[in-house]
Prior knowledge:
By secondary structure, the chain is an alpha/beta fold.
Amino acid sequence: MSGANAKINLLGMNRSDLESFFESLGEKKFRATQLMKWMYHLGVSDFDLMTNMSKALREKLKEVAEVSVPEVIYEDISADGTRKWVMRLAGGNSIETVYIPDNGRGTLCVSSQIGCSLDCSFCSTGKQGFNRNLNSAEIIGQLWIAARSFGDYDLSKERYVTNIVFMGMGEPLLNFDNVVRACDVMMDDFGFGISKRRLTVSTSGLVPALDKLGDVTDVSLAISLHAPNNPLRDVLVPVNKKYPIEELLAACHRYLSKLSDKRRITVEYTLIAGVNDSETHAGELRDLLRDLPCKINLIPFNPFPNSGYERPSRNATLRFQKILSDAGYVATVRTTRGDDIDAACGQLVGRVEDRTRRSQKYIPLQNINVSPDGRASA
Ligand code: SF4
């Protein structure tokens, strides 16, 4: 809550937050799951409609709380069914969220920050600079809006969003607490009930925060590798200078060892023509990942203005994939989706006006300190 009369936004609070909230009102804890069912299973934000709560409680809720979602300022549906939303947040900045339907699955790609401070050289979000972390309501708000965009909303009947990936704008582990809280809500049976195997947090490799993540949750993990050796990764993913590949892979092993089931890490590798797409690079990658239970997602680079990089040819992509497949890896080439609405991987930012001043907001990499709980400070 900010300001004397500001209302508490209940969206994005996890079950234990809500239990504490209701206890603070003198109510029983079970009100939390009642409210979650209204909000997340039925998409209801109006307290007056929550008829299994007493009138007095509903009046109290209206006085002190709200269910507030980001404002959608732009929505587009691609010819292939991909949907993209641009949402305006408090403070005037905007984020993008993308929904990709594929063979009975619906994957939502959510953002965790406005912009990103890590400045990967091939990433259009990184070029925008960093503004701020999203709070958990703003993260859950993206899912709320996507889930409600298909008409009648009732999770018990129809589920359009089956998978969620934190691969939109931002580095999720630099917004640790809010991302973990949002994951709680996504996975909770009284929340969106998404399986831990279908909820993926993708990181560029912040090792201390990755270790902490494995202590507090068991979501699936993806790493943005993009290069098979340190000199090249130092250029493409500059955070590698702080946490080089061998430290990142060791952290991946530790993460997997904390899970109660057998899972694989998803290794994201953006293929850039003439930079990291040669047969030699493929061979290096094959050898590098030999001991890691993983699947490899090859993403042909999507050019954006002034990126300085080009998309590899189809032949180069398939050659790269074959070297990995021949070695026994599951290596898929990500099909570009939503090209016509700028929703393809690495294109998020597109038409959003950049309200940040990068020179003032941007934190140079060498000045970032990441504490064990994943917070970055300059
Ligand atoms: S690839 Fe991810 S971590 Fe790197 S700049 Fe882009 S959003 Fe940030």
